[in-house]
Amino acid sequence: MTIDPSAYAYPDAPRPWVRATMVTSVDGSAQDADGVSGSLGGEPDHRAFTIMRSLAHVVLVGAGTARAEGYGPITRRDLDAELLGDRPAPTLVLVTRSLDVPAGLRTEGVAVVTTNGADAEKSLVLEEAGVEVLRHGDDDIDWPGVLDAFSTRGWDHVLAEGGPTLLGELLRVDVLDELCLTIAPTAVGGPGPRIVTSSETQPRPLELADSTVVDGVLLTRWLRVR
Ligand SMILES: NC(=O)c1ccc[n+]([C@@H]2O[C@H](COP(=O)([O-])OP(=O)(O)OC[C@H]3O[C@@H](n4cnc5c(N)ncnc54)[C@H](OP(=O)(O)O)[C@@H]3O)[C@@H](O)[C@H]2O)c1
Hints:
By secondary structure, the chain is an alpha/beta fold.
């Protein structure tokens, strides 16, 4: 199995580049029969995922996905050492309004993006555990403000790992630059969500930048046409 990491090099951009990675079955389910997505794309998706993580400065994930998929902080062991070089492992940034952060993520190397109105006590507990809490926006998260804060920290390569609610929001506010979509060679039926969940229909034109079949799994990259 060969996947060329250079296909995933981040471009130079005037603000942090927001890449999302998602996997879907052929019939459009973002979940496998077991209710999570991790197993859908098999080894090729896993390898592409590792490459993308190894090139990212920050991994952004919705709290629903972190809870469903048992996320932990990202360590060098999870990454491709050659691609990572001597950079630190990317910071895991959890997106949450409730600040109900799984116990395994209440630790250093994790940051949280939330709103100004988020619970002050929960925030304090997280900060005492070494979690950086970034508050941007009153009712909803102010994404341009978040990306400015990322830029200040040198977090210019953003990898959003979903889930569908977070991806819907990134599309709604139109900060998504690239979608790396894996299409797994299976149809699963069932009530699984699409890769995007949102209440508003807002078309965002995309153009195909790359596609390759690896061991029967289709890996695609789509760029937002601006
Ligand atoms: N197919 C794939 O590639 C893929 C990828 C990832 C996940 N998934 C699957 O998707 C399912 C989870 O879906 P989901 O839609 O619940 O996932 P999600 O987007 O990861 O989580 C939703 C939660 O994240 C927080 N959140 C997301 N966007 C926010 C925003 N803009 N502002 C404030 N909070 C925000 C909220 O957390 P609080 O409730 O804490 O406020 C919200 O309840 C799981 O089954 C997972 O396996 C599939």
